[in-house]
Amino acid sequence: MRILVIEDEPKTAAYLKKGLEESGYSVEVANDGSHGLILAQEEDYDVIILDVMLPWMDGWTVVKTLRATRATPVLFLTARDDVNDRVRGLELGADDYLVKPFAFVELLARVRTLARRGPPRESELIRIGDLEMDINRRRVKRGTMRIDLTPREFSLLQLLARRHGEVLSRTQIASYVWDMNFDSDTNVVEVAIRRLRSKVDDNFPVKLIHTVRGVGYVLEIKEAA
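The structure corresponding to this sequence follows.
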């Protein structure tokens, strides 16, 4: 079983890695929020242990962004022990919250509980027409053809697929996929949609990703006129 530890304090990170590996887990460590988020989005982990106060990107932002695409169990491990902080962490999508200093045996028990729980099984597959997304394996197919996507393209397609039939604005897409608001003259979303279409639609007679002029984008199967 694999665990990702996102912790910037070297002694704490080393302590967690040593203790968890001695308990039979495979452990990877990220020392800042941005790197941790990339690993969490690109790799499959059974549990993520996440600090709140991190360089480059705080733990709140990490879990909020991650929850747009991944259901990996998250345990906040932080010195912030205010009740409002705990509530905020859980509302953003964390599964558990443990305050430093902590007893390692308690952390281990919580990790084991979260690992048994795992991601919700109902979210494993998304099927729309001949499009199939295997969320846990990060695989996409149309019919029998495998489609290779970058992590960002996968996140974008997953957002459109989960909300198929719903028109999403550029601002909504930017917020969910990049966790940022882009200026109106920035074409990052358009470029990402164009690249995704080239992989998902261009080689197939039935197009799935459509532009709603002046509004945004929608993934749906449209009946032929």
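The two ends are 51 Å apart (CA to CA).
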